[in-house]
Structure prediction request, 602 residues.
Amino acid sequence: MTAYAAANALGGDTQSVVVALRNGRSGLGPCPLPLPFAAPSGAMAEPLPPLPARLSAYDSRTARLALIPLVEVLPAVRAAIARHGADRVGLVLGTTTAGLARTEDAYHQLAQTGALPEDYDIYRQHSFGGLVEVVRAVASIGGPSYVVSTACSASAKAIGSAQRLLQGGTVDAVLVGGVDGLCQTTLRGFHSLQILSAQPCRPFGAERNGINIGEGAAYLLIERAGDAAVRLLGVGESSDAFHMSAPHPEGLGALAAMTQALTRAGLAPRDVGHINAHSPGTKLNDHSEARAITALFGGAARDTQECNGDGPVVVSTKAYTGHLLGAGGATEAIFAIVALEQGWIPASLGADPIDPALGIDVATTGRDLRCDAVMSNSFAFGGSNVSVVFGRAA
Amino acid sequence: MIRAFPAAGAAAAHRRVAVVGVGLWTPESGSAGAAAGGDGARARAATTGQGTPAIRPRRRASLLTQIAAAVAVQAAEQGGVSLSEVPVVMGSGFGEMATTIDLLKECETSGDLSPTRFHNSVHNNAAAHLSITHQNRDFSTSIAAGHETVAMVLLEAVMLLHDRGGHVLAIVADEPLPALLLHDRGTPAVGAALLLAADPTDGRGGGR
Prediction:
């Protein structure tokens, strides 16, 4: 894990994002989209920088978002290309919507005027492939490049794909990314499911009332060799085989993913000091994930600042950024890595008072916490579960 | 166009993979609904019109989901593998386009979206329905890479086989692209599946 970067409602660069996280400052605010209901959201500051002129035919909100944090990791990507060759560096992006916001605008014009915008291009501006082409062109990546689109687990599953590409010898480095932008379909869709909150979300809180949506992008550069301080140790992936939009009530799929990630990392449950949980702010999700955590790690209460085998300290960062959908896995993996590198965890914003039925150690305040391994969970529509474990280099 | 990746090609040369099952669906074959437990005639009709399919396959399953299910069943049966336990790599350039168009229409008219359509609009809808239908709790992913989607699905599948051994079901499918979102005419639907098996002599294959 040689470089990372994130941009979202907390800030347009990694340092701003991390400082806001450390200070317990939420990025949620009024949704900038015209909607007939209240929907606090994690919107990026406007205006979004335009694409380079040579890529203007690919213009979409998501493509613009994707390039914001890419700038930060470009020096590391170029160094990796110099070391390994462009064909030995891959790209795996996680996204849910790709250019859907652009198609919403185009369809609206079609409905109003009977004609699509002249410059609308479904291949370049809407499709997953168009997004890949934009990032690949800017980063000069020549190796295998594709999108993983498994809804809200997408960019965490991209980490799993990257690990396999590296272990299989196909490439020497992979730029993993996640990106999603706010759009009408997503906001109205979650509203139709009656899980969108009209207030700032409160994951793990007894007074939770649903989720907020956010937007942003994040990247991690993962290389097979190197002297990085943080290592990708294991990824576990499973399916609930239960329901399209509801998690398994006992968290069986989540438990399988977490167990597999630990096994592949060669770790025992007591080795994990911190979990960046999926918890977006619904009771079903909270209870499902908490049951899985309890089944694997045992019920725990940790008051010390050291890993002592009592169980991991659990935090949801969704109340800072909103639910970042396809960008969530990569962003929250970075938050877990920052906790590992810098020895602190953020407060699980909105969790106080904690739902007493959960039985896990949720951090209602930020605190110093030094440990050797952290976990990040992402769960999604379709029962797609992924858990990623990072550790300090030996 | 499918780009050739020298590095991937070199790696693949060391990965001995056997194709043990094949599934194929075209508008002419028209067997998606029947093979998937749905209504083949309806699925066939849905592919013959221009633009948004006029007839919805029954049980709310999209054409893409029915095509994926059809080719999955064919390949799994041919290879003698249960869909309740095989890892799945699903690829689609555009995913659930017909459902997405329906949502855009709802946005434009009432503004109220169908919750079922919304959760069925995700790119991993077809793979998720396979998992739920067959109670498969194992690995499943959904990927896309424009014109390189087939190549990337095979690469992901081969890497998964190298990692875990056993079998992997690789599926690619796309619905007709809606003419109303194109400046030119639409594209036809198509689907294919390959059931791949790790060669035990590969050194990493066999068992999971």
Observations:
- Chain A touches chain B through 68 residues (CB under 8 Å).
- Chain A has a mean pLDDT of 95.
- The longest strand of chain A covers residues 230-239.
- Chain A has eleven helices and 14 strands.
